Amino acid sequence: MKIQNQTKSHSWNRTHSTHKHTPTPTPMKKYVNWAVDLALVLVTLWGAVNNGFLTIETLMSFLGVAGVILIAYGRQENFLFNIVQNILNVVVSSKSKLFGDAAMAIYYLGTQLFGYDIWRKHRGKDGHLITDNRTDWSVVIAAVLLGGVALGGLSYVLGGTYIILDAFNNSTAIVAQYLQIIKRKRSGWLLWAATNLVGVYIWFGVAQPQIAIMYFVFTVNSLRGYINWNQLSK
């Protein structure tokens, strides 16, 4: 797998050195990726065995796992799985009165529909995404804080639960999704790791263990995705 680095000036960017060539992944890196893939599937399967196979939550978790694994490899095919998963997410989040999460699922759906063409236009000859490693963290932090205040107020008005955590979770996710899907930046994975950990706590708190397990799997994949997009681009 090859993931290259692209440099363009933007308000989210700071100038760093560029890498024109991507080394071929070593067998060990391939084996580590395969091991993570297997672990993610097995953990999700274990959750389904304990919480029921024939549920919308289980279908949602398996679609989500397939989608995030493909993103970690920079593969265009992730969009199909993630689009369906987020349609289901709107239903599950609304039922649990996590209105911020329901709104986020709609946002994810929109960015995926828009991001599909962006990824298609920024692929290397091997079919993998061309990424950008530059990030202006002062802008990112400001965006997360402003988004958290706005989403927290909205969730409070709608009578949501876990208002502060839900607002932080979704504000971080908004920025992470923008960085990763629209701007193709590796730093998006770090924000995803944070928001996924919060998601584990929230979903266990509203008695949705299968969805909580899905977010735990997402956390592991976030760390692997960052390594893939960072080390394999050098």
Automatic annotation (TrEMBL):
The keyword Thylakoid does not apply. It is found in: Cell membrane. InterPro entries: NMN_transpt_PnuC. Its main location: membrane. It comes from the Bacteria. GO terms for molecular function: nicotinamide riboside transmembrane transporter activity. Pfam families: NMN_transporter. Residues 1-24 are annotated as: Disordered. Residues 1-10 have a biased composition (Polar residues). Keywords: Cell membrane, Membrane, Transmembrane, Transmembrane helix, Transport. The keyword Lyase does not apply. Residues 11-22 have a biased composition (Basic residues). One of its GO terms (cellular component) is plasma membrane. The chain crosses the membrane at residues 31-49, 55-73, 98-119, 139-168, 189-206, 212-229. It is a multi-pass membrane protein. Belongs to the nicotinamide ribonucleoside (NR) uptake permease (TC 4.B.1) family. This is Nicotinamide mononucleotide transporter PnuC. It comes from Tetragenococcus halophilus. The lineage of its organism: Bacteria, Bacillati, Bacillota, Bacilli, Lactobacillales.
